[in-house]
Amino acid sequence: xxxxxxxxxxxxxxxxxxxxxxxxxxxxxxxxxxxxxxxxxxxxxxxxxxxxxxxxxxxxxxxxxxxxxxxxxxxxxxxxxxxxxxxxxxxxxxxxxxxxxxxxxxxxxxxxxxxxxxxxxxxxxxxxxxxxxxxxxxxxxxxxxxxxxxxxxxxxxxxxxxxxxxxxxxxxxxxxxxxxxxxxxxxxxxxxxxxxxxxxxxxxxxxxxxxxxxxxxxxxxxxxxxxxxxxxxxxxxxxxxxxxxxxxxxxxxxxxxxxxxxxxxxxxxxxxxxxxxxxxxxxxxxxxxxxxx
Length: 293
Description:
By secondary structure, this protein is α+β, with helices and mostly antiparallel strands. The protein folds into two domains: about 1-30; about 40-285, Extracellular Endonuclease, subunit A (Extracellular Endonuclease, Chain A, 3-Layer(aba) Sandwich), CATH 3.40.570. It contains five helices and 13 strands. The protein has a seven-stranded antiparallel beta sheet. It has a two-stranded antiparallel ribbon with strand order 4-5. Strands 7-8 form a two-stranded antiparallel ribbon. Strand 1 (about 65-70) and strand 2 form a beta hairpin.
């Protein structure tokens, strides 16, 4: 409600309520919180697209459709019925003791004439409802956790992939946060066709829900602080992985699947870390974590 619509005849408490409600709603739509001063070392809830919009997702492209949540940002494909990628900021400011919601729901913000994936579309398929932005990354409040169960953040994932190798990578990123860091994380899907507990499949839900061939992730690790993009240097640690969406992928640990950001860009066609200076990008995107150049 705009201030212009408030009549002077209305009681003062109603006016105050309307103004406060308007401010709260506008803050929710922005999906951000005020940042501390430049020299702060307190963990913050920062902009999920601070490192760029990898595919130029927008509201005008149904195959690269931008869904902005307060907890993460999604590029969604109407035809594939899954996210292209999900991007989020992670720090201890997002952590707490909220219980896992476990309440998978269709995303009500999709256009009404689109097919909205339901949890029953996964039943008896041999594939898990796998998170891109993990539930455990968003346990600071019940609302934050519930948001991770929107099915636009969920993809068909081979059960062992989801519960073993992918989970171990998620656990590791949270260990980094508990060790005095924060991170920007981008996770996404590539290709078509995976192998679940019932065997190989390309789609579910009569062809409307794509089974990806692999899941990839990029983790940019920073010490806790502010002005994040300006603090990314040629020594910043960047972990990139691409893990086949199969049961057998869990026979190895996640470190076996490390790659470079450059390779993920060649694979997907996206432009990652686009807000980082070009000279720094060239160095950190070419590096493979754990390998000596």
